[in-house]
Design brief:
Blueprint: H1 18-36, H2 43-75, H3 86-90, H4 95-120, H5 128-154, H6 180-204, E1 207-210, E2 213-216, E3 219-220, H7 224-252, H8 264-268, H9 273-298, E4 303-304, H10 306-333
Antiparallel strand pairs: 1-2, 3-4
């Protein structure tokens, strides 16, 4: 993107939807205390609760998305170019029908995922504290996704009105709909992680070859901290460094919203992706070891088989990548306030 243009810059709600996602989560947690606290929980209770959470999240999150997009549209602050989706334009524009359809889909999806996980981890006892942690995780993630879904629906051309001003924003609207390339990236990520763990297992004893058989050993709570340290080392170079480099490139191209005010702590962090990765290396290794041990302790797992732990490890890596991306965005937004940082003309595709 060439420098020189100075269109209106405001953040779209998907870049700042965490407070709303947490508010939706708080509503769901409050209902959990009302209807589930003090009761003995069974698998059916958790599945039904997840389905109800899908409906509540759809109505609250879409209401926020509609209000936020409409407010920006009236100011001409929406992006001039948005992803066009024939599927989204076939969905209702009115809030109530769209929320009802989305709620049904989210309800079915969350019920299915919860049931699948309960069967995949049958050793887990259904205590109220474990239920709350699980609900906090899926309610927050679901709210964030439904907000992105709502934004994509309401920025479609069929939602425009004749009296709306021209839109001059430069932000990128994310497309949360399942796409072929999304599944391809997920497949490549999972298979790479799977193969890497088999190779590491050969070196550390987690993979045993017996004749024509390859035995993948499980993970015990007493030794999971070693796995966490090794994984933290690996993802620092295979995930964190590329993520930092990608966000830095976008920032140098001028595609990040500038920071509103200087932050001395963020500005003190290394500018180089290599330097920032090195600074994060030991904390990430320690965090990984502590997180895996805490998960197994909290949910009462003395040992997990390879595939049970692989699912936890994959989810942890995805969550950590989001946190690293958020940190990188905030760090490189400080570039606009640094006198030492000079604009660099790069032709890149905005991907934030």
């Amino acid at each position: 993107m060439k420098k020189g243009a100075n269109p209106l810059r405001t953040e779209l709600p998907y870049l700042n939807n965490l407070p709303m996602a947490l508010l939706v989560c708080a509503i769901n947690l409050a209902l959990a205390f009302v209807f589930q606290y003090g009761r003995r929980l069974f698998a059916d209770d958790l599945v039904i609760d997840a389905a109800i959470c899908g409906v509540i999240t759809a109505f609250t999150s879409l209401g926020y998305a509609r209000r936020a997009v409409d407010a920006r549209r009236r100011r001409g602050a929406l992006p001039a170019q948005v992803p066009l989706s024939p599927f989204m334009q076939r969905l209702p524009r009115a809030y109530l029908p769209l929320a009802a359809l989305t709620g049904l889909a989210a309800s079915a999806l969350m019920g299915f995922i919860t049931l699948a996980l309960l069967r995949f981890y049958p050793e887990t006892e259904y205590t109220f504290s474990r239920f709350l942690v699980w609900k906090f995780i899926y309610a927050t993630l679901l709210a964030a996704k439904v907000i992105e879904f709502g934004i994509l629906r309401y920025v479609q051309p069929d939602c425009e009105k004749p009296e709306d001003p021209p839109q001059q924003g430069r932000q990128t609207v994310k497309n949360p709909l399942p796409r072929r390339e999304m599944f391809a990236r997920l497949y490549a990520s999972v298979t790479t992680d799977f193969g890497m763990n088999i190779l590491i297992g050969l070196a550390l004893g987690g993979t045993i070859i017996q004749g024509e058989l390859v035995v993948l050993m499980g993970v015990a709570r007493s030794g999971v901290w070693i796995t966490g340290l090794v994984l933290g080392l690996i993802i620092s170079f295979l995930m964190i460094k590329p993520t930092l480099a990608s966000v830095q490139k976008i920032a140098l191209a001028g595609d990040l919203p500038p920071a509103e005010k200087p932050n001395r702590l963020l500005s003190a962090l290394p500018l180089s992706p290599c330097g920032l990765t090195g600074l994060m290396l030991l904390p990430v290794m320690a965090l990984s070891a502590l997180s895996f041990w805490a998960i197994m302790w909290f949910f009462g797992f003395d040992a997990l088989n390879f595939f049970q732990f692989f699912l936890i490890r994959t989810a942890y890596t995805k969550l950590l990548s989001r946190l690293v991306e958020a940190l990188a965005i905030q760090r490189y937004r400080q570039l606009s306030l640094s006198k030492a940082a000079q604009p660099v003309e790069l032709e890149v595709e905005s991907g934030v």
